[in-house]
Specification:
single chain, alpha+beta, BirA Bifunctional Protein, domain 2, 2 domains, five-stranded mixed sheet, binds histidyl-adenosine monophosphate
Length: 445
């Protein structure tokens, strides 16, 4: 029987040729989070299933249909379908909420949901997300939304809309649920089986159902904004004021309810129409009741997560800039064993100073080695043969302009190479500066 070694449906391979794109998002995300006072947290890939049932919610699609649950011996575990539940569990278990508030953490992690795979919707996907615990002020909502917006801007993403809504607190939700039940009751027979069940337990979930019929029926349902209590309404008004002050464009979209049960008050999504149905690149909101629900004190909290695969689909489509992948600084093309050993020693030293140095590991002839150096885009090459070894010096060739500089093959080799590399860097910067409109005013001085 043939062994199936293909990757599972809904997973993706990230190849070396693309990994710089991931590094770009991760680096800019880390820097942005740090500039807002967030530190990194790393949490387990799986948790007790109960954690997700009690946080994400038993009537959500995620818990009802999408969790990867494994039974190991007598215990049941679930691969994290998102990062919030595990992060809050980690904060509680390690006493982080007894330290200075607000606690601010971010994470970059993989998530697992058994969804129907399509472009932008995977079964294993990655999130950059963050959580802030301790502040009930709408200033915190504005801060977190502003962080997301700053990051999307730094990644140079365009045509992304921010939608905000408030889904109230348990007080206003009670009245709203009554109105929703009354509305859906009249068309109960048309709802899918899951939603028939949700009608009693959690009617707001019907608004998030993926079935086209339930979505159609939900279009005319009452909206939560008409049911907000004074406190929730005031919170939402202040958030809008702060966003306006921060110059962040937004649209109020009363249809946003989010697919997870823990949210209260503010919910938001950043959405692009450029990549089809899976256009939500970031989703988040406030969850003031979750920490208490998981056994902690009453600590208001909020956060968001971005789907990294979705960000990259948009960045590719919009030709956004990525960090340059690391290229070889210096390649030693060698003839004979002695030269190869010299290359090995010189490379060792160069690498200690941070350079990317390489020499032949494949037993190639000189011509093939030079071809290889070209292919990998080496910035400089050095040919080492009997003559060079005898004379104790070799020529370092700049592969861009063909210039050659002689260097002695002694313990000063790295220092001499550093000078050449630095000169090259300076002339590169000069060229960049000349071509940049930012610097053109200097010409008039
Ligand atoms: P979420 O809306 O379920 O929220 O997911 C956040 C983001 O993850 C989505 O906007 C999307 O970009 C990405 N995403 C979700 N599912 C998939 C999938 N199947 N394939 C690819 N990308 C996907 C949460 O996960 C919350 N924990 C966010 C949060 C943090 N709320 C408060 N704090």
């Amino acid at each position: 029987m043939a062994v199936n070694i293909k990757r599972p449906n809904g997973t993706e391979d990230i190849l070396p040729k693309d990994v710089h794109k991931w590094h770009t998002v991760e680096k800019i995300a880390r820097e942005t989070a740090a500039s807002f006072g967030f530190s990194e947290i790393r949490i387990p890939t799986f948790e007790n299933t109960d954690l997700f049932m009690r946080s994400v919610g038993e009537t959500t699609d995620v818990v009802q249909k999408e969790m990867y649950t494994v039974k190991a011996k007598e215990t049941e575990f679930t691969l994290r379908p998102e990062g919030t539940a595990g992060t809050i569990r980690t904060m509680l278990q390690n006493g982080l909420l007894n330290e200075a508030l607000p606690q601010r953490v971010y994470y970059i992690l993989s998530c697992f949901r058994h969804e129907r795979p399509q472009a932008g919707r995977l079964r294993e996907f990655h999130q950059f997300g963050l959580e802030m615990a301790g502040s009930k002020s709408p200033l915190a909502d504005a801060e977190v939304i502003s962080l997301a917006k700053t990051l999307l801007d730094r990644l140079e993403l365009k045509n992304i809309e921010l939608y905000i809504n408030s889904i109230g607190c348990p007080t206003c939700r009670a009245e709203y649920h009554k109105a929703l039940r009354a509305y859906f009751e009249t068309r109960k027979d048309e709802l899918c089986d899951t939603c028939k069940d949700r009608l009693e337990k959690n009617p707001m979930r019907i608004l998030d159902c993926k079935s086209p019929i339930c979505q159609e029926i939900g279009k005319d349902a009452p909206v939560i904004l008409d049911y907000l209590c004074e406190e929730c309404s005031d919170h939402f008004e202040k958030l809008k004021k702060y966003l306006t002050k921060l110059n962040i464009d937004f649209k109020v979209n009363p249809k946003i309810v989010r697919g997870l049960d823990y949210y209260t008050k503010t919910v938001f999504e950043f959405v692009t129409t450029e990549i089809g149905a899976q256009g939500t690149v970031c989703g988040g909101g406030r969850y003031d009741g979750l920490i208490e629900q998981l056994g902690g004190q009453h600590v208001p909290a909020l956060g968001f997560a971005m789907g990294i695969e979705r960000l990259l689909i948009v960045m590719d489509k919009q030709n956004c800039d990525y960090l340059e992948p690391r290229k070889c600084d210096i390649y030693f093309a060698t003839m004979g064993d002695e030269a190869l050993e010299e290359a090995m020693e010189l490379s060792k030293e160069l690498r200690e100073y941070g350079y990317f140095a390489e020499y032949d590991l494949m037993g190639r002839g000189l011509k093939a080695q030079m071809k290889y150096a070209n292919k990998i885009g080496a910035a400089f090459t050095v040919v080492l043969g009997e003559n060079e070894l005898n004379e104790g010096k070799a020529k370092v060739k700049n592969m861009k302009n063909g210039e050659e500089t002689e260097i002695r093959l002694n313990d000063k080799f790295t220092a001499a190479f550093e000078d050449i590399a630095m000169n090259e860097m300076m002339s590169f910067l000069e060229e960049e500066t000349e071509n940049s409109p930012l610097f053109s005013f200097n010409d008039n001085n």
